[in-house]
Amino acid sequence: MTYSGRVTVGGPADVHELKDLMITKVAVGPMNNNAYLLRCRATDEQLLIDAADDAHTLLGTIGDDGLASVVTTHRHGDHWQALAEVVAATGARTHAGRYDAEGIPVPTDVLVDDGDTLRVGRVELTARHLVGHTPGSIALVYDDPHGHPHVFTGDCLFPGGVGNTRKDPEAFASLIHDVETKIFDVLPDETWVYPGHGNDTTLGAERPHLPEWHARGW
């Protein structure tokens, strides 16, 4: 089956099979949050991006092979509802952006800064600190050596625009600056984007609309 990135709460997961990494996407909770389970194909080590909700579904997706790490993309409550239960069940180490960790009610084992490397087995991910949706939001970039990059953007980039900045012009200016300089300016059009809610997209699909986003201010 070809990966589409279209999932629904209560429906099946969708799996993106890359040469070195398997990415399983599942939708959970009343706000239709996406959670992403990354599995190194060489070592079977696993990392979860956003234990958003519905620990039962997430633990079923993780399965019996354990979980090494959980990364919370930002402090908003819909992205960590299942974090305590998932960590209690798996013993996974927790990661979050340095400036959002204080807003997450589960202790953060690893404070993440811009440019930090996170690992799942033999696969490396690069953290990008994107300011505006929250003070400490992070995106994770996987630069696939066998293909194009993949970026997990939390609530900082979606199909059709950047994340919610609550009509705050300074927050919007900060977020679109960071998304442009740290994502669009350094990654190619083929880059696959995995957002915190809803369907996936690519940078190439979104890039032509950047001037519109600037003009509307959200």
From TrEMBL:
Superkingdom of this protein's organism: Bacteria
InterPro entries: MBL_Glyoxalase_II, Metallo-B-lactamas, RibonucZ/Hydroxyglut_hydro
Coiled coil regions, renumbered to chain: none
Example of a GO MF term: hydrolase activity
Pfam families: Lactamase_B
All residue ranges annotated as the Metallo-beta-lactamase domain in the record: 32-197
Keywords: Hydrolase
PANTHER family in the cross-refs: CONSERVED PROTEIN, HYDROXYACYLGLUTATHIONE HYDROLASE GLOC
This protein's name: Zn-dependent hydrolase
